[in-house]
Amino acid sequence: MSHPHRFYAPFAPGESGAIRLPSEEAHHALRVARLRQGDPVSVINGQGDEIRGLLSVSGKQNVYVEVREQAACPPPPVALTLALGGLHQEKALQEVIRRAVETGFSRICFWQAEHSQKPVAVHDKCFKTALETCKQCGRLYVPVIDTAPSLEQFLTDFDGPGIIGVTEMEGKVPEPAVIETRLAIVVGPEGDFSVREREVVEAFGLTPVSLGKYIYRSETAAAMLMTLAASIVGELGPPLPISCFPSADPSS
Fold first, then answer.
1. Do the beta carbons of residue 143 and residue 113 sit within 8 Å?
2. What pLDDT, on the 0 to 100 scale, is given for residue 1?
3. Which of 24, 208, 225, 234 is the most exposed place for a label (fewest CB within 10 A)?
4. What range defines the domain where residue 50 resides?
5. Is the same domain home to 241 and 136?
C-alpha cells in the first residue's frame, strides 16, 4: 500500500483546521507531484507530529491541507548522536546526513579535527537534506545538526557513553558501554585522528567496536557504525544483543 505524498510545515501539535504549506512545498505539490484538490497527503513538522488530510488549493500558490487526523510519535528511548570529524566534501557530507536520518539519529555533530585544514560548518542545505530524507523515509524527527570546536569539547559536553570504530583492537579495552538514554557514535576525520585526539578517546573511555582489518572512508565507517548502533537500541526492530552492550540485551 503506497503512502500519501508527505510534506513539511511548521505547525504546532494539536493544530486543527487547515495547515498552509510553505511556498516551496506548495510548488512541489502542484508542479512536481502534480496533486489536485482533494488528494490525500501527509504533513510533518519535524518534531514528531504528523497530520493526514486532504489537499486544498486556493489560487495559484496557496496550498492548504485540511486536517483529518493527527498522530504524535514519542522521541526514541535512546537518543543517538553521530560525532564525526568534519567532512569537507559536500557529497559525502550530505550522504552522512541522509544515513543518520534513516537510522533514527537525534543529533549530528561535526567536530573540528586537528588534521582538518578547513573549519567545520553547517549550512541550510544540511537541514534541507535532513528534512527531505525524513519525508522520504517516514521519520518524524529532524535531527539537530551542529558543530563542536574539538573532539574533547564534544565529549565533555555530551557526558554520556560512546562507541568508536577501530581497525585494530589493541591495548586496554575500556569497560562496556552501559546504554540508558543516550549514546554517541564517534568517527574519525578524513585525515585520521591526531595523537592528541587518540589520547582524548582513551581518556573518555569510549568502547571500541571493530570494523575489521580494512581502512574505510569516514562516511563509510559512519554508515557502518550508525547501522550497528540503530540495531543495538532497537531503531531497526527488536534490539540486537551484543556482549559489549549489556543493557541492550532484551533479557537484561
1. no
2. 46
3. 24
4. 5-72
5. yes
